[in-house]
Design brief:
Layout lengths: L1 E6 L13 E6 L2 E7 L3 H6 L8 E5 L5 H16 L6 E5 L3 H11 L11 E5 L2 E5 L2 E7 L7 E7 L2 E5 L7 H7 L4 E5 L14 H11 L3 E5 L7 H10 L4 E3 L5 E3 L1
Parallel strand pairs: 3-4, 4-5, 5-6, 10-11, 11-12, 12-13
Antiparallel strand pairs: 1-2, 1-14, 2-3, 7-8, 8-9, 9-10
The structure holds zinc ion (2 copies).
Length: about 240
């Protein structure tokens, strides 16, 4: 299983970090985790097209995680897609799609290809990806993803604060992608600084920690150093980073 970071930033745009989006690939199949601003543009650089995507997993309704979902759905319509597109995420996502259908697609809603909706939390199988969606504390209706392929496990909770729930869902994972929204020493409900991310990774006993979702005021090198000081195999996400799980 391979993780490609398409967007390692948060809600504040920067020139070098797009919004939250990750491409997960295995056995020639591809899924997106979140579809924040810049996701589809970054996807172009990977050689994987939107037509190659089997599904999209959205963690929550904040636009830095889902604003290009509508763009993707519309684009696939324009490109004449016939294959189904999986869409996994919390129930509140349906409000977003309904809004889109009402205001954005006056001609031919719903799209002419099937959208296979999976309302999570819950488990689903998008072969070869075994996906478990768990409720995550951030705002209401957030779902984090634990993805397993061939005995390897990738966990992406999306935005989250310090939580036993996140530790549980990440337990023993080969790779954990955690947000590092906050500068060191800053505590804010629903988000993590590097020390808090390190504590989660340490308690969960993960193989590798990828810090991501950086605000512009986070010292990224310092964040990684704080995690490594605890003996955690940590690295910083950057747009275009490719790592094998
Ligand atoms: Zn976010
Ligand atoms: Zn958020």
């Amino acid at each position: 299983m391979r993780l490609t970071v398409l967007g390692s930033g948060g809600i504040k745009p920067t020139l070098d970090r797009a919004g939250s989006a990750y491409l997960v690939s295995a056995q020639g199949r591809h899924i997106l985790l979140d579809a924040g601003p810049g996701a589809l543009r970054w996807l172009l650089r990977t050689g994987v097209t939107t037509a190659d995507l089997d599904g999209v997993c959205i963690t929550h309704r904040h636009p830095d995680h889902c604003c290009e979902l509508i763009l993707l759905i519309e684009l696939e319509d324009a490109m004449g897609r016939k294959a189904p597109l999986g869409l996994a995420g919390p129930a509140i996502l349906d409000d977003y799609l309904t809004f889109f259908a009402r205001w954005g697609r006056t001609e031919s809603a719903p799209p002419p290809y099937p959208i296979e909706r999976a309302v999570l939390p819950g488990d689903l199988e998008w072969s070869p990806f075994g996906i478990s969606g768990r409720s995550v504390p951030h705002v209401e209706n957030c779902v984090g993803f634990r993805i397993e392929v061939d005995g390897k496990t990738l966990v992406y909770p999306g935005d989250c604060g310090p939580s036993d729930v996140v530790v549980d869902m990440a337990r023993g994972a080969d790779m954990l992608v955690l947000e590092c929204t906050l500068p060191e020493g800053v505590d804010h409900h629903g988000h993590l600084n590097s020390e808090q991310a390190a504590q989660i990774a340490e308690r969960a006993g993960v193989g590798k920690l990828v810090l991501s979702h950086f605000s512009p005021n986070v010292d990224v090198d310092q964040a990684v150093a704080i995690c490594r000081k605890r003996g955690i195999d940590a690295l910083a996400a950057e747009d275009g980073l490719v790592v094998e799980v």
